[in-house]
Amino acid sequence: MKLDVIKLDGSKAGDIDLDEALFGLEPRADILHRVVRWQRNNAQAGTHKVLTKSEVSYSTKKIYRQKGTGGARHGSRKSPTFRHGGVYKGPTPRSHGHDLTKKFRKLGLRHALSAKAKAGELVVIENAESEGKTAALAKQVANLGWKRALVIDGAAVNEGFARAARNIEGLDILPSMGANVYDILKRDTLVLTKAAVEALEARLK
Predict the structure, then answer these.
(1) What are the boundaries of the region Disordered (predicted)?
(2) Does the structure show a pLDDT above 90 at 130?
């Protein structure tokens, strides 16, 4: 499939032939869902923790005599049945991550790229280079109509462009190796440089 290539000032800079195996698939929500869930679970900190019966701060003295009270036979205020007692089987630090094969992760990325191409939310630019001036880049982004955009560059991000984009709300930039399903789907517009297209095609074939 062919797509126009533009410059940051909006002028045309030729066209590019995109690989159908990466940008021409019929997007499948089930594949995208599995990859996004894998990403978000791996990103979850898993540091939730509660105090158990052995960890709460209370005296270990028996609270009242065993017999003759007419009540239950309690031995400790740390019991979960008492207020401020320990929590029974509460959350403890653990990893929420699970495995997903590399082959399936690549497939998910191909479907994410295809989803953006099919929705008409894919833009290819000649390069992502800037002098590092936020005001100038913000004006170009506004003229292009990018409200929530993810820019993916080649192997390395241009330092001036990254510095200029840092203070623009809704604009993110990643190197090609950082391209992932969650960030692609989260943004309204996916912007690829020509170098990013070449890198992604080499990575995902």
Answers:
(1) 65-99
(2) no
